[in-house]
Amino acid sequence: MPSHRLRSGFAGVSVCGAVATGDSVTRRIERLPLTALLVASLSLAACGAPVGSPADPTRPSAVAKPSEPGQPVSGAELVGHIHNLGYDGRVLLIGTHQGLWAQDMDGPPALKAGSNFDVMGLTLANDRWFTSGHPGSTMAGPESLGLLKSTDQGRTWTAMSLSGKADFHRLANSGDVVVGLNSHDGALLRSADGGLTWTELGTPGLYDLAISQLDSTVIVGTSESGPVRSTDSGFTFQPIAGAPLLVLVAWAGDTLFGADVDGQVVVSEDGGLTWSPRGSLPAQPGALAATKTTVAAHVGDTIYESIDGGRSFTARIAGIPGH
Predict the structure, then answer these.
(1) Residue 127 within a domain
(2) What is the pTM of this model?
(3) What are the b/e assignments for 250-272, b being 16+ CB within 10 Å?
(4) Which of 118, 180, 250, 297 could form a disulfide with 285 if both were Cys (CB 3.0 to 4.6 A apart)?
């Protein structure tokens, strides 16, 4: 697969692919200079504007056929650069430059109605889904969509806050607490009321982040110098001694999964303080999602999946164009 330099910490691999391989970049994550900080904290109420509707145009995906047992399904119809992955039960969600796709086990990926926009950060909070991004060609709205929320599994989306002011390329949640990295300036923002109002926490230079599902004050992030950890809701971060050079992290219950620059998958059972190796991927992944026992990772033109807690991986979707 082609090699790409990773962008700044706030952009993360969910921005535009950003998988780095090759000798020149396997031991560090390169970072572009950050722009100026926002002048004041962002604390805006929800505006409630409808973003998507069941009548929004969708792209058919009937060309791809269900796979044979044990074989990956075809990703030929999965258009648009992949930014992120998520799980809704055993349904794999795929956020792309051209909408949110869902792949139900052995069936082909299908574009969800109402998601005709560039799906950047994506995080699921049971019946509430949060995302951000940019409007599609048929959508009215500002260039930066702020925080969007869906309560019908991604069929329709409502603008919650920060419309025109934030473009979250990373989002994570723990209950009503939502944290996000704004690509405008690299700022880390935190909401304690489900995305209605926000507090800016500075620019810690994070590449990816995950928030504890048991204690929302604990956040683990990745950076060019290694993973960092906060125990005060993201106000300050400290390096994690002895940790591998992680690129992506995903929290599932009390287990924190990580993937390093070489594709090694690791886990932490103590909130990111110590790490143990599990399985490995062919190369550094561009997106990562996890449940307690299931892990999905996008590498090149393939989405790999583990059903044994990251110990072994097989291809779930293969032949994705443009990767």
Answers:
(1) yes
(2) 0.80
(3) bbbeebbbbbbbebbbbbbeebb
(4) 297
